[in-house]
Amino acid sequence: MDSQKKDPLYKSFGYAFEGIGTCIKKERNMKIHCVAAILVVIAGVILKISSLEWCICLTLFGLIMALELVNTAVEAVVDLVTEERKPLAKIAKDTAAGAVLIAAIMAAIAGIIIFLPKGLTFLGL
């Protein structure tokens, strides 16, 4: 058995929420993701998207925001390890950012598929 005493579960959740809050405060892209999520929720309510469409949107919010948190963590660790420009550090940072970008592009495409027809109908087009 582990000889170190572990923090209670509520402290673990506290650390996780602190990490999320730090990322929202310090990372421009996380702020953009949060604003986009709010706008999607507003559009979803106005356009009355289905339960399945809500599940898709919520899953995509979670994926993108989770990837942004991981990207932030990778960048912080790389910066902690070295201040020099190193090829491996660049690969770590760029690929983590690329993961967020791929998820965001796919989410945008899913958003177009879900919202464009409903928006056109809402506008009477």
Largest sheet: none
CATH class equals Mainly Alpha
- The radius of gyration is 19 Å
The low-confidence parts are none
Q: Tell me the overall shape.
A: globular
Mean pLDDT: 94
Q: What is the SS-derived class?
A: mainly alpha
Distance between the termini: 66 Å
CATH architecture: Orthogonal Bundle
Question: How many E-type strands?
Answer: 0
Total of domains:
1
- Helix/strand order, N-terminal first: HHHH
Work out the helicity level: over 70%
Question: How many H/I helical runs?
Answer: 4
What does this structure look like?
With 125 residues, the chain is mainly α. The longest helix has 36 residues, at 87-122. It contains 4 helices and no strands. The protein is globular. The chain has helices at 9-26, 28-47, 51-81, 87-122. The model has no long low-confidence stretch (mean pLDDT 94). Keywords: ATP-binding, Cell membrane, Kinase, Lipid biosynthesis, Lipid metabolism, Magnesium, Membrane, Metal-binding, Nucleotide-binding, Phospholipid biosynthesis, Phospholipid metabolism, Transferase, Transmembrane, Transmembrane helix. One of its GO terms (cellular component) is plasma membrane.
